[in-house]
Automatic annotation (TrEMBL):
One of its GO terms (molecular function) is nucleotidyltransferase activity. Residues 5-118 form the Nucleotidyl transferase domain. It comes from Sphingobium chungbukense. It holds the Pfam family NTP_transferase. The keyword Nucleotidyltransferase applies. Keywords: Nucleotidyltransferase, Transferase. CDD domains: NTP_transferase_like_1 (cd06422). Gene3D superfamilies: Spore Coat Polysaccharide Biosynthesis Protein SpsA, Chain A. SUPFAM superfamilies: Nucleotide-diphospho-sugar transferases. This is Mannose-1-phosphate guanylyltransferase.
């Protein structure tokens, strides 16, 4: 059973200013509780026993919050106070803490609600290490609430992913939730880099897969998105 997760919480939250002038983005409240707590609740409900959280901006505040809101999960801190490493660099920095088994990775600033199936359990059942290096939770572009981009991926009938072409629209958006194999976390191109490097390698090998999320998903990237999200959560 995949029971370890990485929670990305080190970003500067520039798009969420001015709310992030005095607090880290993961602690901005949506529907009565911090964004991070929404993610932690979903991870705990999905059977995660250990969560590795990277910290940088206002790191002490994030750490203090985690110690009192861990939902019974063991919490390990991946400290990026010295330098913000982006998503790929953050994963490499946390490599030893994540262990040698596949793990979940989730962003702390996207909010998802389960559909007919519990999301992490569904992803576990679909995970096939013989075929996959990563399995991404995607949402159809038409249901990507508060998201303004043109989509990220195309997905074939078997779930294999390819990227959106320049100046085109793709039908699926990455939700910020994925399962990754540790075998991807090798040969970093630099200290600071994006997870896109790992995905590109998996695509070239035909080993990047996706699954469509059946529940709700919200891109909570700006202050303007918060009342929209809260209204949708309140009224369905």
């Amino acid at each position: 059973m995949i029971d370890t997760a990485m929670l990305m919480a080190a970003g500067l939250g520039k798009r969420m200013r001015p709310l992030t002038a005095t607090r880290p983005k993961p602690l901005v409240k949506v529907a009565g509780k911090p964004l991070m707590d929404h993610a932690l609740d979903r991870l705990a409900a999905g059977g995660i026993r250990k969560v590795v959280v990277n910290v940088h901006y206002l790191a002490d505040t994030v750490e203090a919050h985690l110690h009192s809101h861990c939902n019974g999960m063991a919490v390990a801190i991946s400290d990026e106070r010295r330098k913000l490493l982006e998503t790929g660099g953050g994963l490499m920095h946390a490599r030893e803490q994540l262990g040698d088994a596949p793990f979940f990775c989730a962003n702390s600033d996207n909010l998802w609600i389960d559909g007919p199936q519990e999301t992490l359990g569904m992803m576990r059942r679909l995970w096939d290490p013989e075929r996959m290096d990563a399995l991404l939770l995607l949402v159809p572009l038409a249901r990507a609430n508060c998201h303004r981009g043109p989509g990220d991926f195309h997905m074939d009938a078997n779930g294999r992913l390819t990227r959106r072409k320049t100046a085109h629209v793709a039908p699926f958006v990455f939700t910020g939730v994925q399962i990754m194999s540790p075998r991807l976390l090798v040969d970093p191109p630099a200290e600071v880099f994006s997870t896109n490097i790992f995905w590109n390698r998996a695509i070239e090998a035909g080993r990047l897969y996706g699954v469509s999320h059946q529940g709700l998903w919200f891109d909570v990237g700006t202050p303007q998105a918060i009342p929209v999200v809260e209204s949708m959560l309140a009224h369905g």
